[in-house]
Amino acid sequence: MSQDSTSAPWDSSESQGASLPSTNAEGPSEGYAWYVVGVLMLVYLFSFLDRQILSLMVDDLKVGLSIDRDWQIAFLMGPAFAVFYTIFGIPFGRAADTRSRKHTISLGLVLWSVMTVACGFARNFWSMALLRVGIGVGEASLSPSAYSIIADYFSGAKLARAIAIYASGIYLGSGLAYLIGGQAVSILRGTTPWQIPILGVIPGWQKVFIIIGLPGLLVVPLLLLTVREPLRRGVISSRMGDGRTDLPFSEVYAYAKENWRALATHNVGFALLSFSSYGTGSWLPSMFKRVHGWDVAQFGFVYGLIVFIGSASGAILGGVIADALGKRGYRDAKIRVGFFAAWIWLPFGIAFPMIDDASLAMVCAAPAAFLASMPFGVAPAALQEMMPNNLRGQMSAIYLFVTNLLGLAIGPLIVGAMTDYVFSEELYGLEGIRWSLLWTTLTAHLIAALLLYKGMSEYRKALDRFDVRGE
After folding, report:
1. What class, spelled out in words, does domain 29-232+250-468 have in CATH?
2. Which of 77, 233, 356, 428 lies at a C-alpha separation of 20 to 30 Å from 144?
């Protein structure tokens, strides 16, 4: 596989999914390639800002929408969004392999931004759930196309770093949700409701959805006017001999079956780390309120800084380490980073839910957040290297399906259900939530580490098969 850091000239063929002809026979500069990564990272930031803000509004949701159970809150944070996010990721992954990728992302960005704004007008649990479905559908468009674009601008020595920088948008967006969202919720909660003709009264806390949803629409022109489709490198033709590059599903299935062990250990291993991260991120604000007495603004400021700086740095450092190990001959470097991050996380992840002192608990939460973010730049980068170009979007969509089904859909729901029914308030008081967080995240990390250990050898075998074919 090529070790060039940037791609050849972008292609103008509609069959390759491009929308603009080349204006530079020498191809895009490395600086421009990094600019594209920056724009895509900004889009990812907005997706997580819109996605995560809900975790700071648990009490407001319960009062404003007449919700009385934690599992309902968990449903809004998890399955209402994640089930449709994962399902629609499959057709969006197909579109990433066969259509204009930047147009696919732009369409989704408009949809999820509008749906976020509309959350400001929700009047009950079911209307909020329906709007969260819409956000999930829109956001499903992003990562399969983004991974594919980045992999065509970068390969080899800089791919993990480039995708890790894109992935840092997860933590920059989540950090801003805590930092800005926490302060905004506290400030706007006590303000005079807006009276909007036809749409009715908008309570103070729901104004936050409108304020954070609208800026995403401003990024659409930036994406459409300044990001060019790169040349699709490493495209394979159908085995049917008809020259098709939009492979039939039978060939997609055959490729997945041939590499199922590598894909299973990769996807499920990283998905369990996602399970832990989403379960923690969704319920940590509530834990600090119930156990330590912190309000939303206090928690949002402190933990927001940890996520914005520490987790974003962890994601980028994971990519840098993987690229450095790759240069030293470790072909499984990207899986290796995930494996070691999962193990090193354990002492910090066990400590922070159980420590009685709030400040010390947050001190332990900081390295846990840093380490938890390291796998999520290298995981998609690993997939790009073992896939032909016109399978990347679909295989990335399957990875996102598994990761978000276990992580985003089930993670918060399991923590909420365990708090309701296992470590209930009747038995454990307000401290039940810390036991729920401890046992769910600990179990997930241990199983993930074992799968990724096995996955290192399976990944090397998959790369060997890929190289033998000359793909």
Report:
1. mainly alpha
2. 77
